[in-house]
Amino acid sequence: MKKRICGIAVLVLTAAFSVYAQESNPASDFTFTERNGEIKITKYKGEKKDVVIPQNINNLPVTSIGQFAFEEMQITGVVIPNTVTLIEKYAFAKNQLTNVIIPDSVISIERRAFHDSKIKNVTIGNGVTEIGNDAFGNNLLTILIIPNSVVIINNYAFSNNLITGLTIGNSVTTIKGGAFSENMLTSVTIPDSVTTIGGDAFTGNRITNVTVPKSVNLARSAFDAGVKVTRQ
């Protein structure tokens, strides 16, 4: 009986800790604007380095993270609520993040949104359609899955990481210049949905041969010189 009571107590304490750990930062930790019944966070001014962005402020949904809102704040963790649809340029750049989860509510991630932030793991939600220039450049990513919702991967979006495993979703049509350059890929599968691959998209990797559908408009410099490219 005592063991059972102790076990229940542990479960209750664990649950309480979990709830506490996910408690949102107060609205006073942010500057924000209100427009058309929605909230945009424009600046983080709190002291916590592990940030939980609230779903609502003043009973209105937080739908966007403004440009430069968390840039160089030395945050080590962030929870983005599933009310957010837009992450603007430089929003989380130059931080100490390790793991990032982009919720399914997010549609667009703008340029350099997570640039140079020490990120090792990222989960990109199934609502994202476009990933901006250099959005995740200069991080520490090793395994990357681009969900089927993504259509456009912009210039240098994932350049200068440590990517060894890459899955490109079957809705991607455009892989722009330098998108996956300077990584550690040894192979890549290009889905049939892709219509354009820009210059230097995969240069600076360890790829020796690759198959690219004939329908793709392939820049001559998309892969390193010496890579055997088969069109079929």
Catalogue the unreliable spans: 1-21
CATH homologous superfamily grouping: Ribonuclease Inhibitor
Give a short account of the largest sheet.
11 strands, mixed
Structural class: mainly beta
Shape verdict = elongated
Count of DSSP strands: 19
H/E element sequence: HEEEEEEEEEEEEEEEEEEE
User: Roughly how many Å is the radius of gyration?
Assistant: 20 Å
First-to-last CA distance: 68 Å
Q: How many structural domains are formed by the residues?
A: 1
Strand percent estimate = 25-35%
* Mean pLDDT across residues: 92
- Quickly name the level 1 CATH class: Alpha Beta
Descriptive report:
- The protein has a single domain (29-231), classed as Leucine-rich repeat, LRR (right-handed beta-alpha superhelix), CATH 3.80.10.10.
- Helix content is 9%, strand content 26%.
- It has one helix and 19 strands.
- The strands form five sheets. Strands 1, 2, 4, 5, 7, 9, 11, 13, 15, 16 and 18 form an eleven-stranded mixed beta sheet that branches. A two-stranded parallel sheet has the order 3-6. Strands 8-10 form a two-stranded parallel ribbon.
- 38% of the residues are buried.
- The model is unreliable at 1-21 (pLDDT under 50).
